[in-house]
Structures are given as structure tokens and as C-alpha cells.
Write a structure and sequence with these properties.
The chain has helices at about 5-10, 15-30, 50-60, 65-70, 75-90, 105-115, 135-140, 160-165, 190-205, 265-280, 290-295, 305-320, 345-350, 375-395; strands at about 35, 100-105, 125, 145-150, 170-175, 210-215, 240-245, 255-260, 335, 355, 360, 370. By secondary structure, it is an alpha/beta fold.
């Protein structure tokens, strides 16, 4: 017998990837410049100059064994020390190399954490809207994903609903801020209140409830008054899952980390479980060359001005055309209310205008579409007549 769960996952592609493949096919038919593909969160701004320069320098000045050989299972010690130093400088923390476990990006980080924590009967909470793969990551451990609805007008935490959702089976809570797909950032007062709720629930149920933060978009915020709180400073049982895919525009290199602070309950045992889950999943030794690049380029960020320009251009135009959208603080997505109840039907109709928009039912928030604006500004400018025409089509 073949594992039917895996067959289903392999046969039913994500709606995002399906749209992306459709876009490539359509571009071959009518020209790439005539297809407005907003499906995939693939950074379009270049990596910082030091990234490519560092790749070249490493290749020119080091042996193949150093470049392409195995690192330690938990990651290169110098890389982990450089990351710890950068976090300490930025956030006033006191992390060490041994608090970090290098991974193949944030997806691997999340999956490893969930495997490390899971015991039969566990539930994992997240907030809507959420990245659809959370359901895959959680449910393939055997745990249950509990989606808590946020405030429908702001997508901020609805604490009444959260209180109702937490119970004795709650093992962890996943927070993604800045959020994919809404771009919303949970502000300091929300994170502080969330920490207080979790502390009270831990005391009531007599076991740790872990706060897992999914942070590939941490640096992608565009307004001076928006700060992304560093959760380990608010809640002791917090794990950080990070990826350099967006901050350094290198998603194909698949490099990130898990942070297990000393303050976490039984932290050494939990770190061992993380290492064990990485081993069991086959994630031992993240890409070594990418690790060496991170050591030299940690703390740098790609030019975010392009994303801010794209956000402002698209948000202002769409709201002028009559679309409804929460203003995104960060990431590079607009979460737009569908012009009909069925978001899939709306997405299909958008294709008639060569607009590829991701229906958000799988994000836990039906009636919306996600628009990834990590594309060229020229594409956005060219797409605006199509967005206007789509809106006008619903007025007839």
C-alpha cells in the first residue's frame, strides 16, 4: 500500500503553484508582458550586492570541502555565532550559537518544530488568514490545526475567540507577523496581551504552550511607526522560525534557522528534540555554501523601497477602483475582498483579464484573494487598466 495522504498531497497542487504554472503556460501563448501574474511570493528585488560578491569570494578562496562538504548537523558554528551576535545587537538579547539550529528555510523550521513538539492528541492554533501549508505541516504530524478567526475589519487578534479556542490539548500557537497573506503586523500591545493569555493558560492546564513565530517577512515593513515585536522578550516559551528567503532575496537557496532560547522550559531537551526531528525528517545539515554566505552577510536586507512603491501604487489604485483591502504594514501582499462571494469564481473571472489572483479559501478566509506585489513596478502599472476593467465588469 502507498501512503494515501502523501498521494493526495502530491496530486493536488497548492492553488498558488497551480496559478503560477498556468501563468507560465499563458505567457508562452501571448507573451510574458501580457500576463499579470500576482500568484507567487517570489522576491523580485535583487539580493544585496554583498551576497553575490560573497558567493564569488568564497568559491575563489576556499576548498571544495569547505564550500560543499557537510557542516555540523545543527549548522556551522561560525554561522550560528554570527546570527546570535546579530540578534543580540538588534534586540538586546543574549543568545549563543547553541541556541540556533540551521534549516532549509522557514518551512523546514516550522515542520521540525512541530515534529519535535507533537504528542498524540495535541492541537496547534493559528490565526486567520494563514499560509495554507500550515495545515499540511500540522496535520502530517498527527496534530489538529485550530484556526482562530481574527477581527474581520483589521485581521488583528480577536482575544475572545482565542480564549475560547485554547484548551488542555493546546500544545502550540503559530504567529506569522508580518502576515502572509494580509501584510498585517501584530503590534506590541497585542503580543504583550497574547503572552499574558498564554501564561494564564499554561498555569491553568499545567503544561507549556509554545509560541512559534514564523518570521520570513520580519524585515519587510515600510512605515516608520511599524515595529515587529521580538516575541522572546515577551514570552519565555517562544521559538523563532526564520528564513533569509525574503530579507536577502534568496528563496532558492533554502536557508533559515530555528531559535530555541535558554528561557524556554527544559530548553536543552527541546533543542535535542529539534535536532532529532531534523534527523528524522532528513533535514540534517542545511546547505553549507548558503550557511557560509549568511555568516558574512547576516544583518543585511535587500532594497525594500521597491516593495513600498509597489504597495502604495497598487493599494491606492485598487481602493480607488472600489476594491476593499486592509492596508498592509509589511510583507508583499494585498489581501483583497472578492467582488463576489465565491473567491474561486472571482479568480477565474480575473483570468479573463489576464490577472492571476490567488483565491484565499485555503488561507482560512473565504471571500478574499491574495495579490503578491513582489513584481516589477512596470507590471503593476500595466495591470491597472485590467483591474479597473474587472471591477467595472461587476457593475454591469
Amino acid at each position: 500500500m502507498i501512503n494515501e495522504t502523501m498521494v493526495q498531497l502530491g496530486q493536488v497542487r497548492s492553488v498558488i503553484r497551480d496559478l503560477f504554472e498556468f501563468g507560465k503556460k499563458r505567457a508562452a501563448e501571448i507573451g510574458e508582458e501580457n500576463v499579470f501574474d500576482f500568484s507567487l511570493g517570489n522576491p523580485n528585488v535583487p539580493a544585496p550586492e554583498d551576497v553575490n560578491r560573497t558567493f564569488i569570494e568564497l568559491i575563489e578562496n576556499n576548498s571544495d570541502i569547505y564550500l560543499h562538504g557537510y557542516t555540523s548537523a545543527q549548522g556551522d558554528a561560525n554561522t550560528r555565532a554570527a546570527i546570535a551576535d546579530d540578534l543580540n545587537r538588534r534586540f538586546g538579547t543574549s543568545f549563543r550559537a547553541d541556541n540556533l539550529y540551521m534549516t532549509c528555510g522557514a518551512a523546514a523550521s516550522l515542520k521540525i518544530c512541530l515534529e519535535a513538539l507533537y504528542t498524540p492528541g495535541d492541537e496547534v492554533i493559528t490565526f486567520t488568514p494563514f499560509f495554507p501549508e500550515y495545515r499540511v505541516f500540522v496535520e502530517t504530524t498527527g496534530a489538529k490545526l485550530v484556526a482562530v478567526q481574527t477581527d474581520p475589519d483589521t485581521f488583528q487578534i480577536d482575544f475572545d475567540k482565542l480564549e475560547e479556542a485554547i484548551n488542555e490539548r493546546t500544545k502550540a500557537l503559530i504567529v506569522n507577523s508580518p502576515n502572509n497573506p494580509s501584510g498585517v503586523v501584530f503590534r506590541e500591545e497585542s503580543i504583550a496581551r497574547l503572552a499574558k493569555v498564554l501564561e494564564e493558560k499554561q498555569e491553568r492546564y499545567g503544561h507549556a504552550i509554545y509560541l512559534i513565530t514564523d518570521e520570513p517577512y520580519r524585515e519587510l515593513v515600510y512605515d516608520d511607526d511599524v515595529v515587529v515585536p521580538y516575541v522572546t522578550k515577551y514570552y519565555r516559551n517562544a521559538l523563532v522560525c526564520y528564513s533569509y528567503s525574503k530579507s536577502l532575496s534568496m528563496p532558492g537557496e533554502r536557508i533559515g534557522y530555528i531559535l530555541v532560547p535558554d528561557e524556554v522550559e527544559d530548553s536543552k531537551t527541546l533543542y535535542a528534540a529539534v535536532a532529532g526531528a531534523g534527523r528524522a525528517l532528513g533535514y540534517v545539515c542545511a546547505p553549507s555554501l548558503a550557511q557560509h554566505v549568511i555568516e558574512k552577510c547576516v544583518g543585511q536586507v535587500s532594497d525594500l523601497s521597491v516593495y513600498r512603491k509597489n504597495r502604495d501604487l497598487l493599494y491606492n489604485a485598487l481602493t480607488e477602483f472600489g476594491y476593499t483591502c486592509v492596508h498592509p504594514d509589511g510583507a508583499f501582499y494585498l489581501f483583497v475582498k472578492s467582488l463576489e462571494e465565491d473567491a474561486k469564481a472571482f479568480s477565474d473571472r480575473a483570468r479573463d483579464f489576464e490577472l492571476l489572483l490567488v483565491p484565499a479559501d485555503s488561507f482560512g478566509t473565504p471571500g478574499y484573494v491574495r495579490i503578491a506585489y513582489c513584481v516589477t513596478t512596470e507590471q503593476i502599472e500595466k495591470s491597472l487598466p485590467a483591474f479597473r476593467a474587472l471591477a467595472e465588469a461587476y457593475k454591469k
